[in-house]
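At this stage, I wrote out one protein, both as residues and as discrete backbone shape codes, and that material follows here.
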Amino acid sequence: MTGGNKNDKVNMKTLAKELNLSTATISKAMRDSYDISHETKLRVMEAARRLNYVPNAYASSLRKQSSNTIAIIIPEIADSFFSQAINGIESIIAPQKYHALIYLTHDSYEREASMFNDLASGRVDGVIMSVASSTQDTGHIKKLQETGTPIVFFDRVCEDVTADKIITDDYNSAYNAAVHLLLAGCKNISLVTISGYPSILSAREQGYRDALNNNGFTTDDTRVVTCSNKYMGENVNEIKAHLTTVKPDGIIATVEQLATATYLACDELKLQIPGDVKVVCFTNQITAAILNPPLTTVLQPAYDMGKQAAEILFSRLSGRLIESEQELVMPSQLVARASTAS
């Protein structure tokens, strides 16, 4: 391309294609952003002049305005992990005189993508999110990034999106949970999990498998139960079927709702916890200590993860953080209780 045709609409995408740059880089260069080199800014301005690019003054004015609002996008609010994470986020945004819009995807990709279309209008200054389990196409996320809106992921992240990410050490946490059950005398340990969340559940499954393999036990797919992420009754039946056929003496549940399903399945089969089967679950639910018996948990630092995500987002918004995107791994804690007692 050697020049702009006056009948063509020259926009940021045109400039991006001409210069082999992202539209986000073009937008930042036009705004004289601190994190774009002087050389790149000159290239963009020269191409804009050559192609007769005329910026949309109204859209530019909207982008320059601050809404003093951030979006928190999460799969659900009932999960205690997300409730605690929101508290951590609020501890940072409230003193900054910011407001939070909380969006619930209910683990639906379609709902998540629709929310991002709403946010593209400049309604928020930044986004903190945990992706829906069914999200594979990340085009809606990347499109919002192209407007210059910073996004920080926590817990469930998109591997193919370049952004700040706050995660936990899922592999090591599952590995330690399996070793804990082995030390408690278990010899036939099963993993109860759900489909989706590849960024976290695959790591948890691998940690479980490696712990058993490294300690002289074999693992196979018959010891992994994949449940629904929506239907409690269906999950209870799946776990009951597994308990009566495979007969595990230890169970690791990878997400919070499976703790209740496992306890109900054992109760309906008249199996004693921990006498017949020992149970450990990834959960932050505060009722874990008062279940019968009290539940051994892998406790994620939900509050601190939310707090850290908000701190990073504000550092991006203020320009204090200009280096490339980072991934922070925060350790979880195994809290041993009666459900895994020897």
